[in-house]
From TrEMBL:
<dbReference type="Pfam" id="PF00723">
    <property type="entry name" value="Glyco_hydro_15"/>
</dbReference>
<protein>
    <recommendedName>
        <fullName>glucan 1,4-alpha-glucosidase</fullName>
        <ecNumber>3.2.1.3</ecNumber>
    </recommendedName>
</protein>
<keyword id="KW-0326">Glycosidase</keyword>
<dbReference type="InterPro" id="IPR008928">
    <property type="entry name" value="6-hairpin_glycosidase_sf"/>
</dbReference>
<dbReference type="GO" id="GO:0000272">
    <property type="term" value="P:polysaccharide catabolic process"/>
</dbReference>
<dbReference type="InterPro" id="IPR012341">
    <property type="entry name" value="6hp_glycosidase-like_sf"/>
</dbReference>
<keyword id="KW-0378">Hydrolase</keyword>
<comment type="similarity">
    <text>Belongs to the glycosyl hydrolase 15 family.</text>
</comment>
<keyword id="KW-0624">Polysaccharide degradation</keyword>
<feature type="domain" description="GH15-like">
    <location>
        <begin position="2"/>
        <end position="248"/>
    </location>
</feature>
<dbReference type="GO" id="GO:0004339">
    <property type="term" value="F:glucan 1,4-alpha-glucosidase activity"/>
</dbReference>
<dbReference type="InterPro" id="IPR011613">
    <property type="entry name" value="GH15-like"/>
</dbReference>
<dbReference type="InterPro" id="IPR000165">
    <property type="entry name" value="Glucoamylase"/>
</dbReference>
<keyword id="KW-0119">Carbohydrate metabolism</keyword>
């Protein structure tokens, strides 16, 4: 609707622009209602699941640079902490495999949502089949985190609140494991530099997780097993590769700004 408004203005159709602007405002107001203050998280649906990989997917693919649930929004970062913390308990892989073959730490493996029963191979059957981490879901968290760090650098400051403290100060691997107080930190401050550095490392751990569990010769399937980490589901899922390319582009932008 925002893009429709801008396009209508470009064409000189102010009536259509006003209509699209009103619909955009209505949608923005509705989207804001998905914030669940009690759970300190964006809610995936208003009458169903609270946490879901649709949250980071929506942040990336719905970003209009208007600040509404952007990557650096403290509500977004609070939601990420909750999402990651839940997946630690969801998959035994996250409890067993915490480092790669060289001993470097791995992120939480991220799937679609808790209780998923689609395993990529069988007809979904509650009680008989179990969902797994997805490469694209793990990658989208990395991309969003890279984008958050980039946004902070462009803004020149970070405002630490009770909400984003959940991610910044939460224990690893769901959080960054920092101990930063609430306040606004300029880009020259040690706190700013630590947060940006740890956000980058946090995202890198997700990419490392994907690399570690990728199929032979760097093929990316749909999913990787919740217990063993071996690739399964659809072979060479296009979206898995697209998510990795998009995450890499976000990382390259961050690197250029950090140089």
């Amino acid at each position: 609707m925002h893009e429709g408004r801008d396009f209508a203005r470009f064409l000189g159709d102010e009536g259509a622009a006003a209509f699209y602007a009103q619909q955009a405002a209505n949608l923005d107001a509705r989207i804001k209602s998905f914030w669940n203050a009690g759970a300190q998280s964006i809610q995936t649906t208003l009458n169903g699941r609270l946490l879901d990989a649709a949250i980071p997917l929506g942040v990336v693919h719905g970003d209009l640079n208007d600040g509404l649930f952007s990557a650096s929004d403290d509500r977004t970062l609070s939601s990420f902490y909750s999402l990651e913390d839940g997946f630690i308990r969801e998959y035994t892989l996250n409890q067993r495999v915490k480092t790669d073959a060289t001993g470097l730490p791995l992120s939480v493996a991220i799937g679609r949502y808790y209780g998923d029963v689609y395993d990529g191979s069988s007809m979904p059957m509650p009680g008989k089949t179990l969902g797994n981490p997805w490469y694209l879901c793990t990658a989208i968290v990395a991309e969003t985190t890279y984008r958050a760090a980039t946004a902070y650098i462009k803004a020149g400051a970070i405002k630490v609140t009770a909400l984003n403290q959940r991610l910044f100060n939460g224990p690893q691997p769901a959080g960054l494991g920092l101990n930063v107080a609430q306040g606004t930190y300029a880009s020259t401050s040690p706190e700013f530099k630590r947060i940006v550095s740890e956000l980058t490392t946090y995202a890198d751990k997700h990419i490392r997780r994907i690399k570690f569990h990728g199929a032979a010769n760097f093929h990316l399937n749909e999913q990787y097993n919740r217990d063993t980490g071996f690739a399964q589901g659809v072979n060479d899922l296009t979206w898995s590769y697209a998510a990795m390319l998009s995450a890499n582009a976000a990382r390259e932008e961050l690197k250029a700004l950090s140089a």
